[in-house]
Amino acid sequence: MTHKNQKKVSYAVLVGPAVLIYAALIIFPILACFLLSFTQWTGFGIPEFVGLQNYLTMFKDSIFLHGLRNNFLVVLISIFGQIPIGFILAYILYREMVKGKAFFTAMIFFPITISEVVVALLWQQVFSPSGLYIALMRVLKNDPRYVLRIFESKTYAIVPILFVILWMYTGIYLIIFLANLQKINPAIIEAAIIDGASEGQILLRVILPSMVNIVFTTIIFAITGSLAGFSLIFAMTGGGPAHYTEVIAIYMYLNTFRYYKYGYGSSVSMVIVFLGVGLISLLQIIFRKLEDKYE
């Protein structure tokens, strides 16, 4: 056996088990889910092939469409809320614009160390009729009869949840950005300062170009996490009232495990997969153009 063939065999031996595990845990379940999405099945008996009926029914269902809208709002608040805020806070701490770097880092990151269910129950109490938010608003508005009605609105019921999501997950991006900012050679920034660069110029012309790949990675995290998000919202509202705060992961769960529509639930799962792949593919195209611009 030649040296080249020995290397190929070595690579196969090393990579093979990981590929098999990945196929068993990711590829095969997705393929099985895809095939099941074209059937009607209650979990018992033989699945009945129904073609595209599940998908057609899904996109005619107003509850699903509202859940899809809520999901896109979660994606937007993650990409345009968590990531920019996380980066700005990381930059402020990195440039030591405030004292107590370790303290602020720990406080901002702290929410993510708490269980999603605990966070959900905590904020559920805050927004409850006898909770802190209502009590505070009654004092500020000088109205002892003040009642929070945002959950009665189909359009705005998701807003408190978006706030909780922003509060809980921003710390992840703070840590990611701060860790990568600290890898930048300080001599480069010092040289820019000596050349008369302002803080804004340092940020736009030195820091951001070196962070393009990191931003790309964080957006992928935001998209996948937002589309698969379930525990926090389910524990906080269960998708209610009247499905107003429901996202498609909850919609999938209810149809699959409460109503025993395994074929229909599989079709909803595939929509989540297609959305994730589509958004990430679009993101890759955008960032390739950005990389070409900065090269």
UniProtKB/TrEMBL annotation:
Judging by the UniProt lineage, the source's domain of life is Bacteria
- Among the record's GO biological process terms, what is one? transmembrane transport
GO cellular component labels: plasma membrane
Q: How does it sit in the membrane?
A: Multi-pass membrane protein
State which residue ranges cross the membrane: 12-38, 72-94, 103-123, 156-181, 202-223, 229-254, 266-287
The subcellular location is: Cell membrane
Chain ranges of the ABC transmembrane type-1 domain: 68-283
Question: Keyword annotations for this protein?
Answer: Cell membrane, Membrane, Sugar transport, Transmembrane, Transmembrane helix, Transport
| Stored InterPro entries | ABC_transporter_permease (IPR051393), MetI-like (IPR000515), MetI-like_sf (IPR035906)
Q: Which Pfam families match?
A: BPD_transp_1 (PF00528)
Q: Which residues form a coiled coil?
A: none
Looking up PANTHER family in the UniProt record yields: ABC TRANSPORTER PERMEASE PROTEIN, INNER MEMBRANE ABC TRANSPORTER PERMEASE PROTEIN YCJO
The entry sums up its family as follows: Belongs to the binding-protein-dependent transport system permease family.
- The name on file for this protein is ABC-type sugar transport system, permease component
Q: Which organism is it from?
A: Vecturithrix granuli
